[in-house]
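Reopening this ticket.

The earlier resolution said the output was attached, but the attachment link was broken on my side. Pasting everything inline this time so it's all in one place.
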Amino acid sequence: MTSADPTWRMAVALARANRDWVPGLVGVRVELLDSSGRPEHSQEVWTRVEMGPEGDLVASQVWFAEDGAVASSDEERPARGLLRDGQSPAGLPPLELLRGSPFDPEVQKDVSASRTGERRDFDGRQCIAFAFSQRKADGLSRGIAWLDEATGAPVEVQVTGGRVPGVVGVRAVTVRYGPVEGGAWCAKEMSIEGVLGFMWMRRSFRIAVVYADYWRIGRGGSHEEGAQ
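Inline output:
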């Protein structure tokens, strides 16, 4: 059901207004941790997202490193799965991890949100907390969303439950939002923590995602100049 709270509705309206903004550069770092919580293996990939000739989004890998070894610019090195055989988040299409926002206007029928009464200051922004749940095809996710009380802009969202593509055993997902050049308000960072389990073996992992160089899809599906 759609929340009737005016602050939550402002967040949904803001998501609708900013839905045509695309991160032009996406960085994903995956780390497998040892028993002391230190990185034992790592994989990092940066991907450029541009408008293709057919009006679709085209992604190209611009930088890749594994366990600190950086691939040369002329070397083709697809991101291999660290978390399991097959695709890992570092090998996914760069926008895949950005999907599933609880503020997406199209999913509000599956979202329930209410104020918790908590307040917090985020870099000078007075924010209020909303507890929310969201029904998805792979289950129910729950979380806390901190929204700017004056504008409804999401500042931080913490989610538990649900699934992340290519990942099992997710403990928590945190998304941080902020302004981007051009006047939009978009996701800037995401962190994911979890545990992998196979029989008696368990491994902790963490993932850090950075979204940068946002640009806007213009009318007719073109790249809008001057919005980077």
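Reporter confirms the inline version is readable. The radius of gyration is 18 Å. The longest helix spans residues 6-17.
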